[in-house]
Structures are given as C-alpha cells and as structure tokens.
Design goal:
two-stranded parallel ribbon, alpha/beta, six-stranded parallel beta sheet
C-alpha cells in the first residue's frame, strides 16, 4: 500500500533526504509487489504517472464507527468547556506541517474577526516546523491569542468529543493523499468545509463546501455558507455510501483473488 507520492508532486514541503530515499523505496516496492493499493483516486493517478504502473487498486480510507454513535451535543460542549475552557469554536485536526495550511486558516479567522464570538482550535502534533505560521502567531495581540488554542497529544476520546462539540470543522490542507478528519466530522454530524486540492477534490459528497485552500475570500465564503446552511444530513448519507472499511476490504479481497 502506497498512501501517496506527495513528496514527488510537492517537493518543497518535504526534506531532500526524505524525497530521495522514498522515491527509491516506493518505486522498487511497487514494481516488485503482486498487489499495489492506494487510498484515493488522486494517489492512484500520481503513482501510475511517476512509477509507470498500470495495475493500482483503490481501497479508500474511512473512519472509526464511534463517530456514528448518538450523542448529546450540549452535554459534549459542556464537557469541552469544563475540561479545556473552550466553547463556540472552529476545529482543524491535523499534524503541523506547512502543507497543512494552518496559516491561511488563522489569517481568515483573524481578518474576519471571528474571534469576537468564537474560538479556533488546532489539534495535532508538530511534524515539520512552520516558520511563517510561528512568526504570524507571535505578532497577534494577546487578547486575540486567548481565542486560539493549540492542543497536542489529545486522547482519542477527547478528539471525538472535540469533533462533536465544534460549530464547524475546517480542513484547509494544500496537499493530501486522502484526508480522514472531514469524514469523521461529517459522520459526527458536524458541519464541515474542505480544501478542493489533490485527493480532497474527490470528496463530491461535500462538493458545495469545497474551496481553494490558498483563496482566503473563498474560504471565508464557505465558512459563512456552512454556518447558515450546514446541510450535513444529505452529505453524510452520500459519504457513507462510498467510504467504509467494509467496502475497502471487499476491494482488497478482489485484488487478492485476482492474483
């Protein structure tokens, strides 16, 4: 299974040593394998192009079924407020790397003064240093900084709680091989908007809530649209029809039987 080859399409976001090593290892592994799998149609096309391999099968990623369980939103929101001091918030779940695009989301949040009645929560561990993000954040006034939270090493149960409690889930990444958090949010019936770049362009179940991750105005338009018309019910059903571990297991089995 090759999740993606983003390091070949977006080399500026990856260290040179990583690119050289994995170019060799990924290509050799793929060409010597009986079955080559990946997680999105986008990744399939890029693997075929870079490695010259025609037989690549897609086994889509999905999400933990706990996100589908019933819950009481006011109770979850009360827990998040008492445990973390956070309420009325936008949520972005992702490790920290420049390609994840935390900076543009932060600028949209501040420039449109969402901090006046909402908070912005980033959940994820640090992976690659984001110098521009760090510099921009340091220049933010203290009163506004209080409305922005960076959380690391959050337990899975608290991650589920944050996903359920948020007013809006935002996923502004520039490059992804898939992108599971938008599925988790929608499964939890939380309104979600998402980048339309790379693999996320396949997320036709939220087509009207996709945006150019580098266009601040468009991102803001989608935030407003999602808050007024969340439309998660029909989007959730479309998503469930396509993305499940059962469907992916069936596709994997077909490939094994074929070999």
């Amino acid at each position: 299974t090759i999740h993606d080859v983003l390091f070949l399409d977006f080399p500026l976001y990856f260290p040179k040593s990583y690119r050289v090593k994995n170019r060799f290892l990924f290509e050799r592994s793929a060409k010597e394998s009986d079955v080559v799998l990946t997680v999105s149609d986008y990744s399939k096309q890029r693997i075929q192009k870079h490695f010259g391999i025609n037989e690549v099968s897609v086994t889509y990623n999905a999400f933990d079924p706990v996100f589908l369980e019933d819950y009481n939103k006011p109770e979850i929101q009360s827990y998040i407020k008492s445990a973390f001091g956070i309420e009325n918030f936008f949520l972005f779940v992702s490790r920290f790397e420049p390609r994840k695009n935390h900076l543009t989301l932060l600028k949209v949040f501040i420039e449109n003064k969402y901090y006046s009645d909402r908070m912005l929560v980033f959940i994820g561990n640090k992976a690659i240093d984001c110098e521009e993000l760090n510099k921009y954040y340091q220049e933010i006034p203290k009163e506004i900084k209080k409305r922005i939270k960076f959380l690391e090493k959050i337990s899975f149960s608290d991650l589920v709680a944050f996903t359920r409690a948020s007013d809006l889930s935002i996923y502004p990444s520039i490059a992804e091989g898939f992108g599971i958090p938008p599925l988790e949010s929608l499964a939890a019936e939380t309104p979600v908007i998402c980048s339309n770049s790379t693999a996320m362009s396949d997320f036709d179940f939220i087509e009207s809530f996709l945006f150019n991750p580098l266009d601040k105005d468009e991102m803001n338009e989608k935030i407003i649209q999602a808050l007024i018309h969340p439309d998660w019910k029909s989007n959730k059903q479309k998503m469930l029809e396509k993305y499940s571990w059962e469907n992916s297991a069936d596709e994997f089995l077909k490939m094994i039987e074929r070999v």
